Amino acid sequence: MEFPSLRDHNLEGKRVLLRVDINSPIDPRSMEILDDLRIRGHLPTLQALEKSKVAIMAHQSRPGLEDFTTLEKHARRIEELLGRRVKYVDDVFGAAAREEISKLRDGEILVLENVRFCSEEVSDEVTSKPPREQAKTNFVRKLASYVEFFVNDAFAVSHRSQPSVVAFPTVLPSCAGLLMEKEVVNLSRVIESAERPKVFSFGGTKAGDSISVIKSLLDRGIADAVLTSGLVANIFLAARGVEIGAENMETLAKKKLDGQISKARELLEKYGERIVLPMDLAFQGDEGREEAPLADLPNRKVLDIGVETIAQYSKVVREARVVVANGPCGVFESAPFALGTEELVRSIAQRKAFSVIGGGHLSAIAGSLKVAKSVSYISTGGKATLSFLAGEKLPGIEALQGSRKP
Ligand code: 3PG
Higher-confidence residue: 21 or 359? Predict the structure, then answer.
């Protein structure tokens, strides 16, 4: 490992600040947690710390969004999953939080309030500074003086340069938690494995980020084939001159993705058929799902890839030795248009290749199809996973690499 690991430290009896990423989908009406994949991902680290005094630090959503809320329910869910009492305090670093941290006994766990309630965590003025400067915030100084060790298990937020992610390793002996380690090991295997062909599938809504990753994977000679769907496919189809219809072009413009078309054109010119585009697409018709070939697309919103494309993509996946999928192929929330995404996940699970799926949507589908166990690794990261695959340096990982020695 390029950074210190929890396996190398005996933290028994130590007061540990543990950064996790339990940012989860929340029902806007009931404010209940809809999927606990990320929470479950941290259980091995919590179990490994069962003889320490653990204060958990985490975020939920961002200021201004409707799921920007307290971590009280997350604390209850950790308690249920772990089968051990978990305390919660509605404070991040104030007197109440510090008192609860100092009262912790061996084996006890305390969840601090949403760290993004704290203005220093999210202010541009702070986050634009290097980690050592971020460590001078009140938030970091106060919390750091109440703990002896920092464990970062929050791979999914390691692409952010925010005090809770990058500042503590500058002032506390620190290491990576077991989930952080697992993410880095599995995603590195995707990049470094000599097994070929390596096939990547990109769909979903983070199309701008996906195009940057596709470029990087192709430029570095890592991807042998890139399957495209959803908005990513619409961008490539428009770049190839296919008439995808005014409605789909407007969606690209509204999402400020029309600027990606010229980038996609350059990639198509350079890498040709390694970038695989749909042959047919699915739409809402009068009687339900309707499909059309590229030469005859209606002026309607694209909702899924068509069955010819599904067959072709499944064939490419069947031949892969390494396969990575990020983002759904269509509007999978609506049953008739879940077909492409479900078939993609099924074919990945059936293939005896090293397989990774990323993003909450695909992992939820793998769960509902009961094939999650047949996928080699399910990454908990969204943007962090994409950035890692693109070969970018992640601030949270860099901070651990340069962390204070015990
Ligand atoms: C995520 O959901 O990708 C992580 O929790 C990071 O969240 P953010 O994009 O709001 O920083």
Answer: 21
| C-alpha pair distances (Å), 30 with each of 33, 66, 98, 115, 340 | 9, 12, 30, 22, 31
- Residue 196's alpha-carbon distances to 29, 193, 326, 367, 389, in angstroms, are 47, 8, 19, 27, 17
Ligand 1 centre distance from Cα of residue 216 (Å): 22
Residue 359: pLDDT band with limits 50, 70, 90? confident
Q: Ligand 1 within 6 A of 23 CB?
A: yes
Q: Is 57 in the pocket of ligand 1 (CB under 6 A)?
A: no
- pLDDT tier at 29, thresholds 50, 70, 90: confident
Instruction: Looking at the CA of residue 384, tell me the nearest atom of ligand 1.
Output: 3
Answer whether 204 contacts ligand 1 (Cβ < 6 A): no
The bridge status of strand 86-88 relative to strand 53-57 is unpaired
Q: Is 324 within 8 Å of 356 (Cβ atoms)?
A: yes
Q: What is the largest CA-CA distance in the chain?
A: 69
Q: Is the CB of 62 under 6 A from ligand 1?
A: yes
Q: How far apart are CA 382 and CA 210, in angstroms?
A: 11
Output the residue whose Cα is nearest ligand 1's atom 11: 157
| pLDDT given for residue 170 in this prediction | 97
Report the separation in Å between the CA atom of 138 and the middle of ligand 1, taken as the mean of its atom positions: 23
- Residue 402 has a pLDDT of 87
Residues 6+ apart with CB under 8 A from 349: 355, 366, 369, 371, 372, 374, 375
382 close to ligand 1 (CB < 6 Angstrom) = yes
- Ligand 1, atom 7, lies closest to the CA of 157
Q: List, for residues 38-94, the tens digit of each pLDDT value.
A: 999 999 999 999 999 999 999 999 999 999 999 999 999 999 999 999 999 999 999
Question: 342 C-alpha vs ligand 1 centroid, how far in Å?
Answer: 25
pTM of the predicted model as reported, rounded to 2 decimal places: 0.94
Say if residue 153's pLDDT is above 70.
yes
Question: H or E stretch including 356?
Answer: strand 354-358
How far is residue 275's CA from residue 282's CA, in Å, rounded to a whole number? 20
Query: CB of 258 within 8 A of CB of 208?
Result: no
Top mutation candidate among 19, 21, 183 for ligand 1, by most atoms within 8 Å of CB: 21
- Residues 340-356, mean pLDDT to the nearest whole number: 95
